[in-house]
Write a structure and sequence with these properties.
Elements: E1 2-4, E2 7-9, E3 16-22, E4 34-41, E5 45-53, H1 59-66, E6 71-80, H2 88-97, H3 104-107, E7 118-119, H4 126-137
Length: 138
């Protein structure tokens, strides 16, 4: 099954995928516009994948994003342990505190087709990435 905003769809035997909306800026935790893709393989192997600017806490990066300028970005893939597919708080905790240790394209070959070199808040952002990932996974 695939999950998108709480709705299930798709393949019966394939991976389960859902979008977890998280805070864009830690200082404003109620503004949940950042998309993290959560993928479960083989009923227990979980990954969190997101597309985010490099140096995301830098004033220069935040200013450039606000002015619709491109900024350097990256796709992060994190392996999650001892957490359930629907445990939002557990997933967010691990996503925030675990280092990226995986090469995303080795686990998810579709990531080779995403231009992760830059981000633009209006036309190449984490929400575009999550839509791309869902479309590539079908």
């Amino acid at each position: 099954m695939f999950y998108f905003y709480g709705l299930s769809f798709g393949l019966q035997n394939g991976p389960r995928i859902r979008i977890l909306k998280t805070a864009v800026v830690p200082l404003l935790p109620d503004i949940k516009q950042h998309h993290v893709v959560v993928v479960e393989h083989y009923n227990r192997i979980l990954y969190a994948i997101d597309f985010t600017p490099l140096n995301q806490s830098s004033i220069g990066t935040l200013t450039s994003l606000a002015l619709a300028r491109d900024v350097p970005a990256e796709v992060r893939v994190k392996f999650l342990t001892n957490v359930d597919f629907h445990d939002d708080l557990g997933i967010i905790h691990q996503w925030l505190h675990k280092p990226c240790v995986l090469s995303g394209s080795s686990v998810f070959p579709c990531l080779d087709r995403w231009d992760s070199s830059f981000m633009n808040v209006y036309f190449h952002n984490c929400q575009h990435f999550s839509a791309f990932f869902l479309g590539s996974s079908n």
